[in-house]
């Protein structure tokens, strides 16, 4: 029996609209699914020959619903100076010759204040909790059974005792997070001892946090979309610009022709910025370039079971199926996807020192991708000043985590209903 037979959409009572989603990464694919489930006819436009070839291809794979602190924080500018002086540091900056880079940096620095960071963190925690709820529904309805999903919890480890103690004091008794001593960290994740014990000061563990294969999820959800009675198809084309009539967007011009619709969702990552600009809409997006390694795990290896994040080195380690995913670094170098051999070498040294027995690093597959981020670290969701044009962009390094909740929010709004969560701080004017 086809579980997507006509009449089984979640909200069949809403007025059906013809909608176009631009972008075939995890944000675009989940949005297309949510809109189809809400009872709308949906077309997906993607410029690459396959889905999830950009930032969704080999990201960290963590679903960090409760660990969502944005990059902009009070101590970041001072820390950044130290990182920039360290050739193997987690942050690298290079002038790209654009005014947009300076604008983004200025706005980012303006938000590096504790009060601003706390407000943004509260907003992201609400979105994360809602997205976790939505993921369960996505998985059940779409029968996502090939995504290597696990929920081992997340352990953020600290190398500096003073930093760990400061964070541990802020950990609320009875809350979802637990502060663990060095010995408790090693008991929870014995593989941490393989790189020596002296470097480890302690850690913060959050039970229930998950890991999954983002690329596999996009591909399987794409297959389910093709079976959905409300899905009109996937157009492999370059989105070029919009056709505007008064204050309404009525069509999308592509390299394969024009697509008319009642509504359009910009979910194309960095490309969204260029598509919005001719309409007078400035999206404050800048690429945070990240790197990853995907190393095969064999029977002789001892990978971590828990999802681990090295706080100081901004490196995460997650077992996804039969591979270890190692993801790290934030390079502010413009729209450059080339793999820098020095950054790759640094990533290799870090993982070999921390988890020397976890995987076959000689056969690791490297990757670099651009994560579109706003200065605040919060995505931009919802309506624009132009009728018919909607946003689901700017998720930065948390696109996988937030994709399910963001998609459902767009589906509710575009079905003429209220957002299920407060969007203060998450709308265009607040970016």
TrEMBL record:
Tell me where in this chain the FAD dependent oxidoreductase domain is found: 19-413
Report the superkingdom from the record: Bacteria
| GO MF | oxidoreductase activity
* Gene3D superfamilies with a match to the protein in the record: D-Amino Acid Oxidase, subunit A, domain 2, FAD/NAD(P)-binding domain
**Key word Protease present:** no
Q: Which Pfam families does this entry report, sorted A to Z?
A: DAO
EC number(s) in its UniProt entry? 1.4.99.-
> Which keywords has UniProt assigned to this entry?
Oxidoreductase
Q: Cite the InterPro entries for this sequence.
A: FAD-dep_OxRdtase, FAD/NAD-bd_sf
Q: Which family does it belong to?
A: Belongs to the DadA oxidoreductase family.
Q: Which PANTHER family match?
A: D-AMINO ACID DEHYDROGENASE (PTHR13847:SF280), SARCOSINE DEHYDROGENASE-RELATED (PTHR13847)
Which NCBIfam families has this protein been placed in?
PRK00711.1
This chain belongs to the protein called D-amino acid dehydrogenase
Q: Which organism is it from?
A: Roseateles amylovorans
């Amino acid at each position: 029996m086809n579980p997507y037979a006509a009449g089984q959409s979640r909200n069949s009572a809403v007025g059906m609209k013809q909608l176009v989603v631009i972008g075939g990464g995890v944000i675009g694919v989940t949005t297309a699914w949510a809109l189809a489930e809400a009872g709308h006819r949906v077309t997906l436009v993607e410029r690459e020959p396959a889905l999830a070839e950009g930032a969704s291809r080999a990201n960290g794979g963590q679903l960090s619903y409760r660990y969502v602190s944005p990059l902009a924080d009070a101590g970041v500018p001072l820390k950044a100076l130290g990182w920039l002086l360290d050739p193997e540091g987690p942050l690298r900056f290079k002038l790209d010759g654009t005014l947009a880079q300076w604008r983004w940096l200025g706005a980012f620095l303006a938000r590096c204040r504790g009060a601003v960071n706390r407000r943004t963190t509260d907003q992201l925690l609400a979105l994360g909790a809602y997205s976790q709820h939505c993921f369960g529904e996505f998985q059940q309805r779409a029968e996502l059974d090939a995504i290597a999903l696990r929920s081992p919890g997340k352990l953020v480890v600290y190398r500096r005792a003073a930093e760990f103690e400061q964070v541990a004091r802020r950990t609320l008794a009875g809350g979802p997070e637990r502060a663990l001593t060095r010995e408790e960290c090693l008991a929870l994740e014995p593989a941490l001892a393989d790189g020596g014990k002296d470097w480890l000061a302690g850690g913060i563990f959050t039970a229930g946090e998950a890991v999954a294969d983002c690329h596999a999820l996009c591909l399987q959800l794409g297959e389910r979309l093709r079976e959905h009675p409300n899905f009109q198809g996937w157009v492999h084309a370059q989105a070029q610009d919009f056709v505007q009539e008064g204050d309404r967007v009525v069509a999308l011009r592509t390299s394969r022709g024009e697509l008319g619709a009642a509504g359009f969702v910009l979910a194309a990552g960095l490309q969204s910025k260029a598509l919005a600009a001719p309409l007078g809409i400035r999206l404050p997006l800048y690429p945070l370039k990240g790197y990853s390694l995907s190393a095969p795990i064999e029977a002789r290896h001892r990978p971590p079971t828990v999802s681990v994040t090295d706080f100081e080195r901004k490196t995460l380690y997650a077992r996804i199926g039969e591979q270890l995913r190692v993801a790290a670094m934030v390079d502010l170098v413009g729209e450059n996807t080339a793999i820098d051999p020095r950054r790759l070498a640094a990533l290799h040294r870090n993982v070999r020192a921390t988890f020397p027995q976890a995987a076959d690093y000689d056969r690791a597959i490297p990757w670099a991708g651009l994560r579109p981020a706003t200065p605040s670290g919060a995505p931009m969701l919802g309506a624009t000043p132009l009728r018919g044009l909607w946003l689901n962009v700017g998720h930065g390094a948390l696109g996988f985590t937030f994709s399910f909740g963001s998609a459902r929010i767009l589906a509710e709004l575009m079905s003429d209903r209220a957002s299920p969560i407060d969007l203060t701080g998450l709308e265009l004017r607040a970016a």
